[in-house]
Amino acid sequence: FYLIPSELAPQEDQALIRAWVQGPEGATLESMTPYALQMEELLSSAPEQASLWAVAQRSGIWGGIRLKPWDQRSRNQAAIIQELRQKAKEIPGVDVSVFPMKGLLAG
Predict the structure, then answer these.
(1) For residues 102 and 11, is the Cβ–Cβ distance under 8 A?
(2) Minimal CB count within 10 Å: which of 1, 52, 77, 83?
(3) Ranges of H-type helices in the chain
(4) CA 60 → CA 5, 22, 92, 103, distances in Å?
(5) Cα–Cα distance measured from residue 101 to residue 40, given in angstroms and rounded to the nearest whole number
C-alpha cells in the first residue's frame, strides 16, 4: 500500500478565514463578551479584511472575515492566517483557532 496524504489538493485561497474561541468550562454568555470583542479586534487587524462576523455563545465564539479580492491584497490567505494565529496567542484565558474554509468536501 502507498500512503495517500490526507490533503489531495493544495489549500485554495477562498478569501474566507474562520476563527473559534473556546471559552473556559462553565463560561457564561456575559463572561464571553470581552473575548468576542478581542476576537473582533484580532480579525479586523488584518488590513486585507473586507467584512467581519461573530456569534457569541456560552461555550465559545465563532467568527470570520471575508478578504478583499486577490488584486487588492499583497498577501495570500495562508500568510494572513499565520499572522492571526501568532496574534491569537496573546489572548489570555481562552484557546483561539484560526483556520481557512475547506476547499473540497471531505467524507
Answers:
(1) no
(2) 1
(3) 29-44, 77-88
(4) 31, 5, 14, 24
(5) 18
